[in-house]
Amino acid sequence: xxxxxxxxxxxxxxxxxxxxxxxxxxxxxxxxxxxxxxxxxxxxxxxxxxxxxxxxxxxxxxxxxxxxxxxxxxxxxxxxxxxxxxxxxxxxxxxxxxxxxxxxxxxxxxxxxxxxxxxxxxxxxxxxxxxxxxxxxxxxxxxxxxxxxxxxxxxxxxxxxxxxxxxxxxxxxxxxxxxxxxxxxxxxxxxxxxxxxxxxxxxxxxxxxxxxxxxxxxxxxxxxxxxxxxxxxxxxxxxxxxxxxxxxxxxxxxxxxxxxxxxxxxxxxxxxxxxxxxxxxxxxxxxxxxxxxxxxxxxxxxxxxxxxxxxxxxxxxxxxxxxxxxxxxxxxxxxxxxxxxxxxxxxxxxxxxxxxxxxxxxxxxxxxxxxxxxxxxxxxxxxxxxxxxxxxxxxxxxxxxxxxxxxxxxxxxxxxxxxxxxxxxxxxxxxxxxxxxxxxxxxxxxxxxxxxxxxxxxxxxxxxxxxxxxxxxxx
Length: 475
Description:
Layout: E1 2-6, E2 17-23, E3 48-51, E4 59-65, H1 72-88, E5 93-97, H2 104-118, E6 138-142, H3 148-169, H4 177-189, E7 194-199, H5 201-207, H6 210-216, E8 224-231, E9 238-242, E10 244-248, H7 268-283, E11 288-298, E12 309-312, E13 318-321, H8 328-341, E14 346-351, H9 356-361, E15 366-370, H10 373-386, E16 390-392, H11 397-402, E17 410-411, H12 420-429, E18 437-441, H13 463-474
Parallel strand pairs: 1-6, 2-4, 2-5, 5-6, 9-11, 9-14, 10-11, 13-17, 14-18, 15-16
Antiparallel strand pairs: 3-4, 7-8, 8-11, 12-13, 15-18
């Protein structure tokens, strides 16, 4: 989408549709306030009115509620409502009059983000022309030049999030581990600051990455470890690790059939890491970053790993695989240990890891678990800034006890049905050593989040959070 800033009055926007926010007790801009029906425009949050004043394009008035209670999340929602009205009217261009007062850059970011995410469509696999109705192609922010940087960052981040949604929605017979590797290679080819290595089965076996090999041995698709390096600064790198299970049947511990089609999205963490890395390179952020994506299918077959089998992870620890549907932690463990070996200063992994996190937190928050208070605070700050919320859960030695093996060092499944999200993270902690590490469990928030600007479909959760975290890391 074309996004620009114009320091013009509302009458000079040149757009098909003009959006204006209305606070409680405030007045509409001159010329709009006298339009028929203007006195019925409602300022309550999420209330929408359409006006057709003389000398203006159609005007959608979006209620913003009380001025003192406005925040970026409410503005993202307001932007979504205006974008939906643009779709209803088949407008291809939309202009937003920046609300007066407050942080103009934060408001601009929210309006751009909400608009671009709401305008998203995925019709790649529809026959013919798919949905050929007019699309919103241009957004103009009516404001001063001081917001241009915020607008540019918001556009890049939101478009990256939409690309992650593309990956989530692409079916598993297309979006294989090889497909993710090809996407990573395309990302690397797009910037001189990026380089890539992709390890296939032979290299993984040579390195001793027993988790990734074990999960991948049940199906014909070759498991891979994708390693993208972004060299944009100096010092030790930040590392992002994204779970990339392109289809998860559960393996021998087979999942129920109902809803299994959603398991094409068990690579949502990988999608977030890949597209956040592409955006970080586009933004030319001054830091070094290593993005690691362990990717595989988890399939049942005569060659699949069996419950009770013992494997050796990359750092040498042995694991009893007591449930083959607890596979994400096995592939993340190898990648985390490898990131430590590569000298990462801080580690952040993101994964659709446990159904337990949805029971605990629903879709509103991702679960956050960390061995470092400072890193946890930074992740929380980034999540609050982007509206991709996280809630920190505790670590405790008693949770580690639940993950000890009987005849191996560890089990990949807790001994009791307790604290499933935390015990899974406690397993991962065994592979990070003393390196500051944060884990984001997005199994409840990667889709079905229900917000106005992403609905209940795959939403690319974590992309903007990871970009914001990199921005904070580099500042």
